[in-house]
Write a structure and sequence with these properties.
about 200 residues, Maf protein, alpha/beta, seven-stranded mixed sheet, single chain, elongated
Length: about 200
Amino acid sequence: MEIKQKLGDIRVILASASPRRRDLLRQIGLEPEILPSRIEEHVTKTEPDQVVMELSRQKASEVAARLAETERGQCLVIGSDTVVSTEGRILGKPGDRAEAIEMIRSIQGKSHEVYTGVTLIYGERMRTFAVETRVEVYPMTEWEIEAYVDCGESMDKAGAYGIQGRFAAHIRGLTGSYTNVMGLPAGRVYQEMKQLLAEDAEDRA
C-alpha cells in the first residue's frame, strides 16, 4: 500500500520552518503542515550523529507536546537537525560573515561529513535515526570563499553552505544521500514512515 494511502487522514507536521525540508517532503508526495519548534537547544552529546538525534528528538517532542491529546493519534510529527563535521569539529549555522568565511575555509580542499538526525512521532510511537553523507570540496581561493559567503546563502545553513545553491560549483563529489546534505534524508524518512505506520496498523489489527 502506498504511504499516502496509509497516512489517510493523518496530519504530517514538520517541526521546522526550513523551506528546504518542506520541499523535500513535497518531493516524496507529502504536504506537511509547518509548526516550528520553540525549544532552546540543549546539547549533552558530543558525537555529531548523537547531537543531531538528540536535537531532533527535542524539536519533535516539543511540537508533539503542544498538540491536543485528541490530535496526537492523528498527527505524525517530523523533527530534524543537521550539522557538518570536519576533523572532529562540529559546524552548525554561522553567527556572522566572519564565522561563515572561517567555516568555508575549514572545509575547502578536503572531505567532511554531514549528519542529519530525524525523529518521527506518531501517537505514543517514536523513531529516531541519523544519516551520514561524506562530501568532498574542491580547493577554493580566498576570493572564491568570500564571494560565496557574500552571495547570501551561508547564514541559515549548517557548515555555511547550501549544496543545492551556488556552492555546487565547489563540490567534487559525495558519498551517501544528496538530500541529507540539504537537511532531510528523504528516502530514509519515507522508509521509516512506512515501517512506523505498518507497526501501528499491526497493533490495531
